[in-house]
Amino acid sequence: MCTCESHPTLKVQKTKAREARTLHIGPFYLHETVKVCPVKGCKKTYRYTGLDHFLSPGSNFGYDVIEYIGYAVWRKSHTALQIQTDLKKKYNLKISESEISCLAKKFVHYMVEAQKNKLPELKNFLHKTGGYFLYFDAMHPGDGAAHIMCAVAEEISEKVHIVLGSTKLPTESTESVAAFFRELKEKYGNPLAGICDMLASNLAAFKEIFPDVLLLICHFHFLRAIGKGFLEYETIRLQHILKQYDVNQRLKGLLRNCKEKIDADPSLSHYLEYDEAEYRSSFQQFPEVVKTYCKIQWILAYEQEMNGYGAPFDRSEFVYLQRMRKTFESLKEHSFDKELSELKFFLASVVEDSDLKQYMKAIEKKINDFDCLRSIMKIAPIYKGKGLNDDGEECDMTLMEELLKDFIDSDAIKSNPDKAYKKLRNQFSKYWKMLFAKPVEARLSNGEIMNVYPQRTTNLMERLFREFQRCEYKRTGMGTLGRTARAMVAETPMMKNLDCPEFMNIILNEQPTLAARFAQLDIRSVQEEMAKIASQEKLPKGLKKIINDSDFHKVFLGVAKMMKKAA
Known about the structure:
This protein is 54% helix and 12% strand. It contains 24 helices and ten strands. It has helices at residues 63-74, 80-91, 97-117, 119-127, 174-188, 200-209, 219-244, 247-264, 266-269, 276-282, 288-300, 316-331, 339-351, 354-377, 397-408, 411-414, 419-435, 459-476, 482-487, 501-508, 514-518, 523-537, 541-548, 552-566; strands spanning 11-22, 26-36, 45-46, 132-139, 147-155, 160-169, 193-196, 214-217, 440-443, 449-452. The strands form three sheets. A five-stranded mixed beta sheet has the order 6-5-4-7-8, with helices on both faces. The chain has a three-stranded antiparallel beta sheet with strand order 1-2-3, covered by helices on one side. Strand 9 (440-443) and strand 10 (449-452) form a beta hairpin. It is globular and about 110 Å long. The chain starts with 10 loop residues before the first strand and ends with a helix. The model has no long low-confidence stretch (mean pLDDT 85).
């Protein structure tokens, strides 16, 4: 009977059957009867809700299947084929690869809905111990894909990192970034400070939405930007000289000739099988062709001196030419017959070039000065770096500020006639306040005031993007993210939160599993969001039919003829 005033007997509106699949039951058939109130002013429908705790209305797959696929895709980077095989083997569930992709996207929507559902608790978690720092950045996968912008909050007391949001932006403009920040502000309030790269639109958008919040720029990005400009002229000239002498091809040609001679003579080939100790003790007695082969291999292995930071911290052209110069220095006082002689004269033609000597001397001076900046700012250390995973050493910011001021105001820097030095000083002057700020005051729940510094780099964001790219490369088998980024749900990077226990404790809402948590959510919101995305990606019916027509070009021919007649 209906609950309305008339309390009439319900009538059958429709019956439907579908095959459902869950992990704990397996595949089973479901016959559902939907009843309706016959009263004209009521028409309320009734359906059996006893299965809603593990199977969403109208769905063929249980929440536990969605959870299993979500974890397999977004935490383990398994391919659809792997998941399909595992579900068949472990649970006797047959599921297509396209259904797996669809359920992986549905998992993202459920996670986003669960996060929205617990916004007050998340906000309280971020602010209860004083607040949070906001790191933000964007990546562009290329191939016509939109920019993917993410924002990560760092809770200051326990250094817990949570991806607050991510979105796709057609361009990284001030307006689009500001809209993203506005939504974050409404949900989580003001951060203690923002940390980003030097992109002007990011800086302007942050100041627009958080006008009273401290904004700092990443020390790594700053040093990289000024270093590229500082060393740019000499680097370009060195690249030109390497190209002019066709160094790579010439050295590889000599190497190939040596290898052919060694392979053709059994008495020579055994030298290449020596261990390190034998090379060190016997190298001077090696035949000339083997020595030449080893020296060229050493020159070409110049990248082993790189620390993984990229330019301008790793100067590949300079190191390459340095190795050539060192090799030439070891040969120039001696005379040789064949291969070493050929190598010696080729290296002489390059390293004795007067222009090269001039540019090498100039860039050596600049490299020494730039490395002093690296040392003072304790960023991208020269000898013990962690590559792109370096967060920057902890340091006394007040002392660093004093040392930097002394360095850039010294006569050697201030009075240098090279325009690059003037540009360097101007860059420091422009961004000084965003590089060095006083510690931020955070008020703890017990009333205590704590002075804290945010991380000096946005390496947190860089690692997030690199890990996201690696997982997608592994999962899709493609070397580019353009196609993947266009098809993925905008909030996909937020799945990184699955690795955060503090976040998951809040999201689970005291439920034992995500499947149980999903059953508590409003499925209509998820369905509406998925329908919205599907409609955005769907082509208009008329256009789709024309595109599918094999004689599509005739449409254009017809239009061209009409335009010609009109003219």
